Model the fold of this input.
Amino acid sequence: MWNSPGLETVEHTKQALIDLGLRYGPRVLVAVLILLGGIFVSGRASRAAGHWLTRMRIEPPLQKLLSRVLAGAVFVLFLTMALQNLGVELLPLFASLGVAGVGLSLAAQGVLGNLVAGLTIIFTQPFRIGEWVAMIGVEGRVDAIDLFSTTLSLPDRSKVVVPNRKIVGEVLHNYGAHRQLSLSVGVAYSTDLPKALAVLRQVLASSGRVVQELEPVLGVVALGDSAIQISVRPWVAVTDFQLAIRELNQAIVEAFRAQRIDIPFPQSEVRLLGAGSDVAKA
Done:
């Protein structure tokens, strides 16, 4: 029987594929199983490390970093085993990856800068999650510290994501968990100052937002043209900063009114000297 060249080519290709399958199929199957096992083991190792680090009271950003490093190391180990099972020469492969890594590092300097800065923040801990910080023109509560960025939560419930390389090397103001208010109230010169200070202390003591364990600062700071200025500087939680300002100002006004303590407003007295009789009658 006459066979066409096309049919012979198909048969030859089919036989070649069968030979390759019989030769390399078991190795590929074993390599896939090794990779699947690596994914499973790396995940379990990461979770186990996370639980252990939590019991050791390690900071969450450092927990996340160490867990990821452990998971990556375990997966690379299984990947190496899979490549060896396929008969891949690892030394030339690692050399090629090194050359490619140099090129990638030159092309992604910004990303690597964020990574290095993130590691610096995680290990030096200039701030922690939950603290109130001010940096590069923004301030808010630290919600997350990742390898490449830091997320801040603002009082208006918006979020700001700051690249880590913008933080390292810049001026950083860390308020911690508490923040001191800077309020001021004016009283008349005829006011009984000890009484006014006692009323202010009572207002602060009855406020649910003032941290009672931290001593507030009260005292006369200025003698104005029409009032004696008293500084009121209590401590509040960073999350209560804006609300505490409004509530304490209202409570101070109401308490002074109840105790008949005057809060004077600026006044000017105008005198006319050398005026004529018409002006005097007017």
